[in-house]
# Entry
Amino acid sequence: MIDTGHPPEQMQFQLSLRRRGISDGRILRAMEEVPRDRFIDPADRQYAWRDSALPISCGQTISQPFVVAYMTEQLQLEPRHRVLELGTGSGYQAAILAKLVRDVLSVERYRTLADAARARLEGLSLYNVEVMLGDGLNLSSNLGSFDRIIVTAAVEAVPQSLIDRLDEGGILIAPVGPHHGVQTLVRIRKTGETIEHRDLVAVRFVPALPGIAREL
# Structure
């Protein structure tokens, strides 16, 4: 048997993504290179390489690996892109993005999560990610526009303010639907004056809430 240097569970992790249709080689490499176990709470670290969502601090979750890979693939990323992520959480999605694009701005409303994610990303020498404590639904205009936007918490409707932040040809991915139930992953593409909406797959995400959390 050839020693690949990866434990069996990590090899199965990669195989599972391929079997479920993830074909972009850059994304598969990023998923291989980013150690998901570094983003999992110690009590659940034994489950890090399972294709399932897991709880993290502040009542939030780290998304199922397939969902992370699928959303990333649907963004159609290029190395030159500047990406906005709303909902840093553990920082895992931001780490994957950082492997694929020029710059990532990730916004988190919980200080505990923002500080922990920033430390993890720095520990992995991913210096092209900025983690900002803030209200992702009410961002300052001085942050500029973005090639891609990814929302990792459920919104009942995509705010027009986010669509307005897309550059020409930009793509936004967000779970849209009721906060406590099944949502639909929606992809929005901006081309000139045309805004194209496409429904992708059913998902479940924690709700996107306004404001910065007073505690945590």
The chain has a mean pLDDT of 93.
